[in-house]
């Protein structure tokens, strides 16, 4: 009933997102088996980068699961999945260094990260309400509900777009730091790029999907408004 020409692009973007997830796992699994020449673990890499960056108030902890790595800016903790924390592979130190990139962004008040943190409380609320407003607006033919849903959903899309430079910058920092600290040799950089670029692609695909969905709802709103 609500099929729109943009749905074709949305389905294509979903396909890219699924492919990106497969690439992330595939590259991580592949380079988990490739030991780094430095022989250090992800935990050691993270702690050394924190120390060399003058960051003394961020802890490094191991967490259960795979690819559950993240930086918690509220509690100032870098949480690394066990394969990353204890592993000494190209994948392990790449992921660990990426998360330290976020900690460094936090210390330096990197603009996109600061904006993302400020947006989070609002987006946390609006993203949960937006789907109900959009669906209700379409089913009930209510332009007011649909319009409010679009506004709320726009906040979530903006959040995802702001996330992109944050992630790309953290990966760029990670690669530079790994080379300068001697964690990897130049000939190992290809593996690092494969691991980090695949992860970045998942953020790009998610942002594209959300943006296309937003454009679809805006088009539906405009069409209903004309009628």
Q: Which spans have pLDDT < 50 for at least 5 consecutive residues? A: none
Ends distance: 16 Å
Structural class call reads mainly alpha
Would you list the SSEs in sequence order as H and E?
HHEEEHHHHH
Gyration radius, rounded: 20 Å
Put simply, the count of helices is 7
Question: From the structure provided, what is the oligomeric state, counting identical versus distinct chains?
Answer: single chain
Helix content: over 70%
- Main β sheet profile: 3 strands, mixed
Transmembrane segments: 122-140, 146-168, 195-222
InterPro entries: Zn_peptidase_2 (IPR007395)
Keywords: Membrane, Transmembrane, Transmembrane helix
Pfam family, one: Zn_peptidase_2
Question: Describe it for me?
Answer:
74% of the residues lie in helices and 6% in strands. It is mostly helical and 227 residues long. It has a domain at 6-35 and 94-101 and 108-226. The two termini are 16 Å apart.
Looking at this protein, list some descriptive labels.
transmembrane; mainly alpha; Zn_peptidase_2; Peptidase; 227 residues; elongated; three-stranded mixed sheet
Please give a quick description of this structure:
This is Peptidase. InterPro entries: Zn_peptidase_2 (IPR007395). 74% of the residues lie in helices and 6% in strands.
């Amino acid at each position: 009933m609500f099929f729109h020409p943009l749905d074709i692009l949305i389905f294509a973007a979903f396909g890219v997102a699924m492919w990106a997830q497969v690439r992330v796992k595939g590259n991580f699994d592949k380079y988990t088996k490739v030991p780094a020449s430095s022989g250090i673990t992800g935990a050691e890499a993270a702690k050394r980068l924190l120390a060399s960056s003058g960051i003394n108030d961020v802890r490094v902890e191991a967490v259960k699961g795979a690819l559950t790595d993240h930086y918690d800016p509220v509690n100032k903790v870098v949480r690394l999945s066990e394969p990353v924390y204890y592993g000494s592979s190209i994948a392990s130190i790449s992921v660990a260094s990426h998360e330290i990139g976020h900690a460094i962004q936090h210390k330096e008040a990197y603009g996109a990260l600061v904006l993302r943190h400020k947006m989070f409380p609002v987006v946390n609320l609006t993203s949960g309400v937006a789907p109900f407003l959009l669906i209700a607006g379409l089913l009930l033919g209510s332009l007011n509900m649909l319009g409010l849903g679009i506004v709320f959903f726009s906040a979530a899309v903006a959040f995802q777009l702001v996330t992109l430079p944050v992630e790309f910058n953290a990966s760029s920092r990670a690669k530079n730091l790994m080379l300068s600290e001697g964690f990897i040799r130049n000939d190992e950089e290809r593996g690092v790029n494969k691991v980090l670029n695949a992860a970045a692609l998942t953020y790009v695909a998610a942002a594209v999907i959300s943006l296309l969905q937003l454009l679809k709802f805006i088009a539906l709103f405009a069409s209903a408004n004309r009628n």
